[in-house]
Amino acid sequence: MDTQSGNNNEATFNELSSVVPQFAQMLAEAMHADRCAIFAYAEDQQSTIALFRYGYDDVIREAHSWTNRFNPAEIPAEAHILQTKQPLMRSTEEDFAQVPLVNTGQERREGRLTDLVVPLIWEERVQGVAYVWRTHDPAPYSSFEIQTAMDLGQLVAMTVVFSRQYESERVQRQRLDTLLNVASIASSGQRLDDVLQVLAGAVRSSTGADVCSLYVLDQHGRDVIAAYEDGLQPDEVNVFIASQQISVYDIPVEVRLHRTLEPEVIHDFDTDLASCSPLRKYALDTGIAEILVLPITWQQRVTGFIYCWYRSDEKRFSQRSIEMAEGIARQAGGVVTRARLEETIHRQTVESEALLRIGQAVLTSDRLEPVLDEISGALYDLVPFDYCYVGTLTADEGNIQVIREWGTNYNSIVNSLIPVNASLSGTAIRERKLISTGHLTQDPRAWQRIPTPSPLQAIS
Fold this sequence. Notes:
The chain has helices at residues 3-16, 20-30, 59-62, 76-84, 93-98, 105-110, 143-186, 192-207, 237-243, 252-260, 269-272, 278-286, 319-364, 368-382, 424-431, and strands at 35-41, 48-54, 88-90, 114-122, 125-134, 211-217, 224-230, 264-266, 291-298, 301-309, 387-393, 399-407, 417-419. It has 460 residues and is an alpha+beta fold. The chain is elongated, with a radius of gyration of 34 Å.
């Protein structure tokens, strides 16, 4: 049974629990029986969503429960009911041999007994069954009693159907409210990080999943540049972080979704996830049954992916919940695309303003320092930094002499000579391209005389 249906069924159980126990008592009393158990089915008849008992001796067996563990077709008596839609009475050994009890020890434990299995029918469909037991005086039920049970059973069936319909309408209203809220947030102009965090939570809520992780790709659709999650437990955080380091091209399901642009529910994690994927290992180790993977798209382009899963191996995604998540994923695609467009426009504006400031400084200043200060300011607007220096090549072109610096550093390096053949700055000059590293002190190309301890970690 899927989880969204499971959540709905649990809510339906709560609705039924205020009414159906009274029917169980009425059935037992009207039939002069010792006890009664009513099982309400899910709409697809594949599981039992509620069990209500009357007349049992111990507290545990008397308690009502919500359960999805039993498929009615696997219970001999209920399989008979589903096929014939007629009541079934068992009172002799031959009866119980022909349609045996699931609990085979019950007859031995309680001695001779008689039961009547009553179909709960509404609109020509079995909505559940009622078991009515006689143990103290196990006489067979009369035809009048059986008809009485059928009439009461129809009332119970009506109650089950109306409760399911009420809950279904409530869920539909909730889904509509969620989509309207998502659309409002997506168009609100809030920071991209804030919006995507909310959308991750909305996907999790709409699917009923335990975890939702949302990954935004770079403009080439290859690598993750931002990630958001909702529902992770502390021991799952490392899985989330490590998953961001894997290229799309190494993840089979993401390669497929780039082509199909359709969501998938995956079960074969060995095949669908990267061999080095921490999520693959986690899913296999913890027994996750399935993972919902959705592409975040905009105008036929994939801008990211959403992963959702349940920690329980009994829960499944419904088609309705997948469609709901698709709608939110499309909103996320629009948000990412608009944010990128705004970022491009902003960057172009900043670049134009920076060039204008630098040009004005060159025209109005007769010294180099003000021009360099404008350049550093323009760089900071484009790429915020903690420290920056400018150097010039020495006459022999063997060193870079630092002539000015900005930002925070433990020790000034102005007038220091940085060797061209043994530094990142020199590598950039020799190769005539941008050099970037995220681990400055560990990069063998870096200048070995960087003042230590140095607060600098990444450099370009």
